[in-house]
Amino acid sequence: MIDVINLHEKYRVNKRAIRKAVRKTFLIEKKKYDQICVVLVNDDRIKQIHLQYMNDNSATDVITFDLTWYAQRISGDIFISLDTAKINAKEFQVTLLNEVLRLAIHGALHLCGYKDNYAVLRKIMSDRENQILNELLEIK
Q: Whole domain around residue 14: which residue ranges?
């Protein structure tokens, strides 16, 4: 099951599209999932999470927690800051929904085992995000 919870007080996005993006990511990666929760928050909340779990007091766009108990089915939480996503969307000249879908895909790829802690890994992950997003939006 993929749940999407919007805790942001200002922005609303299409939850169904987010579920579809996460589902498509797991399908393309040939991964089975159990419980995935995408939580949409503001910058204050993501800063708290970032500080509590990563000792970093800055806002970020997405944080993923792998909660998988056994290897056959993935479980996890994906926190997305809609405030930071809005800033990113403006910078990249895309809609807020498009940026949120990219971040949801990014989080799902982390749950599939992708890493982005080195430039070469970031490039691989970014290319895969774009491929999945383009398929999702049917861009050839």
A: 2-136
Cβ pair 36, 111 in contact under 8 A: yes
Mean pLDDT of 59-71: 90
CATH number of the domain encompassing residue 109: 3.40.390.30
Domain count of the fold of the chain: 1
Are residues 129 and 105 in contact, defined by beta-carbon separation less than 8 angstroms?
Answer: yes
Whether this model's pTM surpasses 0.85:
yes
Q: How confident is the model at residue 140 (pLDDT cuts 50, 70, 90)?
A: very low
Q: Could you tell me the CA-to-CA distances from 93 to 2, 87, 88 in Å, in that order?
A: 28, 10, 8
Does the pLDDT at position 27 exceed 50?
Answer: yes
